[in-house]
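Example 3.
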Amino acid sequence: MSEHLVAVLGRGVVPADEPVIHPDDLGFARGDGCFDSARLVCDESGARVVNLDEHLDRLAVSAARMEIDGPPREAWQALVDEALAQWHVPGEGTMKFVLTRGREWYPDHGSLALLTITQKKAATVRTSAGGGQVVRGLRAVTLSTGRPSDAFAEAPWLLGGVKTLSYVVNIAAAREARRRGADDAIFVTTDGYALDGPTSGLIVVSDGVMRTAPTGATGILASVTVDEIMAAARADGMQARGELVPVGELFTADGVWLVSSSRGPSPIVELDGTPLAVDPELTARVARMAGF
Amino acid sequence: MSEHLVAVLGRGVVPADEPVIHPDDLGFARGDGCFDSARLVCDESGARVVNLDEHLDRLAVSAARMEIDGPPREAWQALVDEALAQWHVPGEGTMKFVLTRGREWYPDHGSLALLTITQKKAATVRTSAGGGQVVRGLRAVTLSTGRPSDAFAEAPWLLGGVKTLSYVVNIAAAREARRRGADDAIFVTTDGYALDGPTSGLIVVSDGVMRTAPTGATGILASVTVDEIMAAARADGMQARGELVPVGELFTADGVWLVSSSRGPSPIVELDGTPLAVDPELTARVARMAGF
């Protein structure tokens, strides 16, 4: 069994098995809230959150787009410090921040802010022999979003780019991927572009150029780790840009990765049943760019 | 202040102000659950739920499509009975059923099922003088879903037709409507059809024919009250059918209504700033068809 920690703003660390959410909390009742997840590392020097500022920044952007009046940065930081001081499980974990609009029955009570820490679960991995080395990667399937790539332009009510608690389609897509014998999904648009995964960003390298789908009209979430990889690629002399990638180009790319803050970049070894190119050297380079 | 009641399966009625949900409940953490709402009427003969079986049927369909193993009907019925026995607030209310996939950290614990009762809030209404009578109705705006009308065909991961807890786009659409000075929204597709409202179904009467958008490929939710009105219309000798209605036809219709179980059919008196036809006799007839 894995370990957990729960801390609620205004209360601090609480027993992890205590119910802390009211049935009329709008985060529960309507998925009306936002969240963010960051990688946590705990070793002999203590526990720390990787890219904490970037994740709290992204949470603040989500809250602003939803017009939720969340706590100030210092309050989050104090809650994080209190939680880290009480977390002693060696190894990797995930810190998740949740902010809801608060209670339906008592709008005056304001927003609810809490964080959880969980031990990292071992990821499902596939191995692919390439160039004499073994690469651990994922089998993926493409799943349509039912929308064109510009569906979120001028439609702020669709909450594109906001990491909301209304996340069930992402979960259902991951379930559909497993049903098809795969490990994960890549969302594609009705006009034929690859966007991202249900819980991860997407990067594609073709002819030495790194691409990731742009935020904005696509509605995809900004990814802290994708941004980190793109910046490192540029520093490393590689061209790297936000640009829509036609689905067909995934099959001819030098490499395709799904990227999340907790598991880093995972190469896609098979897409819709077709093996993809996996270059072990390039994969190791991308992993280093993400700090893994 | 309005009154509330909360009942949790396995515990019965609990204090309405007690937190009963864990932070890792997937309904909270991922919007991974479903719900349904029904009209409640309380008078000297006691409290009762209108169309209870139909709402529990719809909840069961939502759960099945999400592959959530919920409680049997008898368990819901017993919880409803216990809650109704303790509800003594005269007038109208709403009973809401919520079912989640359960806890992320303890998958073995199974699903969470609860219900709430809230007193009915007074709806925002506009009045429109028509034919010497005053009709209470709504001003609405059209908002795009970003999807064509067949986006949900063969895409079960998009959870079309499922009343999930991932409901935030509906809430954001209602907020956008208010921002534009309206009371409610009507979702429209990228190929130009009117679907439904964020928390209501849509019916349109033109040339004596009643139409509502079909479920299925459109992804819209089945509406218990729309079904009731359509059946009553047929029994009343009116043609009534599920059929996509082009947005432009709303402006030339004899009447357009947003329909919910708690507030019944509300005529749209203005759409995107243009007054719509409102026939007081037809509106009264539609209200009677819905049992209001």
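The radius of gyration of chain B is 19 Å. The first strand of chain B starts at residue 4 and ends at 8.
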